[in-house]
Please model this.
Amino acid sequence: MDDEIQLIRDGDDLAVVGDEATVERFLVAEGLPSQALRTRPFRSVLGNAAGVAQAGSDLAAHSGRWVKLTKESAQRVDELGLRKSARTGLSTGVLKGPKGQSKGFVEFAKGPGPLRGNPAQLANVAAVMAQLAMRQAMDEITEYLAKIDEKLDDVLRAQQDAELAKMTGAELVIDEAMSIRNEVGRVSDITWSKVQATPETIATVQVYALRRLDALAEKMEHKAKIGELAAAAEEAESKAKQWLTVLARCFQLQDAIAVLELDRVLDAAPEELDRHREGIRIARRNRRALISRSTERLVARMNAAADEANAKVLLHPAKSPAVVRSANEVVTGVDDFHGVLGIESDRQPSETRRWAAAAAEARDKALETGAKGVDAARNFGSETLGRAGSVKDKLAERARRLRGQMDAAEAESAPER
Model:
């Protein structure tokens, strides 16, 4: 009898469902790290208690693992030839092979199987995959915030804005709801009633932080003197990290709300689960695009300031390198921030142009220019002397001809003797 596992792919997320030993062999053979995929049975609100019970028992008899695909592992999965559903957007297939072996082939089998013919349970698995992906992203943001050592409470406390002050309260409510959800396994009406107003607060704070980053970029644009540019760059280095911290926490809380939303939809309107999951994906992508526009603008302005400072290093040997250092700190900070949010970025830091190197370059240019001037003068002198010699020869020839003509005239007019 063949081993059999079912693969369900949703973007960069992959679920592997089947016998526990077979699933483990597949993951080890492919070198794919994974997390447990635990789905809970639908409640009787589906209207078919027998179908709900069957779906639950089918999945309970199998092991499910969730994998976050890298570019390399995604390419390997692409080679398996999964089939994409136009209705759900999921790519699915059944991997079968000889008993006890990890390698096999993909067959789109029909009939009994872990999740075949059960679109409702597929939607459930896809929702859990989305939740696990967002939970991992939330963990990565937690690590990012710990690494940059910026205290969000300190940042918010320093701002005199009533909406920003609400951020702390929204955090407490969302964290509490997540704790209850993790303990109970669902989001009740009471739990959801506590958090359903928080998205507006988080969105308001996100917009405020983006405007602060835009203001830093604008301030850099209007500095003509190197001293003013250095001061603006130093401020950007200090303030940009703070507002990136706020944006990271906003993104993390928005992911937490999305996790709670999916559980709530699963309970209240399971037939809408697929559409709601896709809506969350689109909203998340739009948030990343919005953040990317502001941060990329700041990076572009910092790089422009670094180029401008490098061009003036001879006149400002102390302040110009300071501008470049501040610009590189901002660019590096934004790149790290982009990485944790999944925003692609390939920018490189600017090189600090040292005074000695700039002086040597200026000297070399001066010497080159001087050498060209000497050569030009020498050539000009040679050409002038050549032209002068030519004129002299012509005048001498003309004088000889004139003397010859005068001698001839005198000879003709002389009386015969």
